[in-house]
Amino acid sequence: MKKTRRAGFAVITAIYAAATGLGVAVFLALPEAHLFWRVLAGDVAATLFVYLTGVVLRNASVYDPYWSVAPLVILTGVALGFGKADAGTLLLLLAVWYWGVRLTLNWAHTFKSLATQDWRYDGFKQKYPRLFQLISLFGINLFPTAVVSLCLLPGLVFLQESAFNFLTLAGFAVCVGAATLQLAADIQMHRFRRRNAGKSLLIREGLWKHARHPNYLGEILM
């Protein structure tokens, strides 16, 4: 069952649904704390749950979609909690959902099964077998969660202030442009890999002709 792609998707969906429930419960259990600390606490709790399931399944890649799923859940949940539905909030959520759904679909496109772990994680495990679980906990799971939480700060502030002006539209345009750049770069990479399966070649066409990592450039712009 672990080697089946469909079963892997089902297991990860169940894990993330449970992680979301746990994160929301922790968030609601801290009503007097500052919004950011409530979000961070829920985020860390969900991350630890995902990490533990990765330990049980012997696959640290269970965390891989977290990077793009967490912002969608957190910002949408906070917006609903504030009862916000103004133009600025809708543009923010639209931009983040476009980015997050696209990135999650890219992960899903490359997902094989729970029997396969990211080759970089395999490298850590082979090189540091005794330290791998610490590397997984702090490097593969908690560090990205900390980065995501800090990246959410502007969105959380925006949702509280509900500011809307020409800069809101400019920010929306930059975010949509950034996610579209990532989309185009990843499509070009997937096509290149299909044409050159099994070959050790560098892509030097399309967007990749002008930048070494156009998809990472899009992530930085976002």
What report would you give on this structure?
- The protein is an all-alpha fold and 222 residues long.
- The protein is 74% helix and 0% strand.
- It contains nine helices and no strands.
- Helix 3 runs antiparallel to helix 4, helix 4 (87-110) runs parallel beside helix 8 and helix 8 runs antiparallel to helix 9 (214-221).
- The model has no long low-confidence stretch (mean pLDDT 94).
How would you sum up this structure in a few lines?
With 222 residues, the protein is mostly helical. It has helices at residues 5-28, 35-57, 66-82, 87-110, 119-127, 132-151, 153-161, 166-195, 214-221.
List keywords for this structure.
222 residues, globular, mainly alpha, single chain, 9 helices
* Sheet of most strands: none
> How many strand segments?
0
Approximate helicity band: over 70%
| Class by alpha and beta content | mainly alpha
What is the averaged pLDDT score? 94
Pick out the low-confidence regions.
none
Q: How many helical elements? A: 9
Kindly estimate the percentage of residues that lie in beta strands according to DSSP. under 5%
What's the shape?
Answer: globular
Query: In angstroms, what is the radius of gyration?
Result: 19 Å
Gap between N and C termini, in Å?
37 Å
Order of helices and strands: HHHHHHHHH
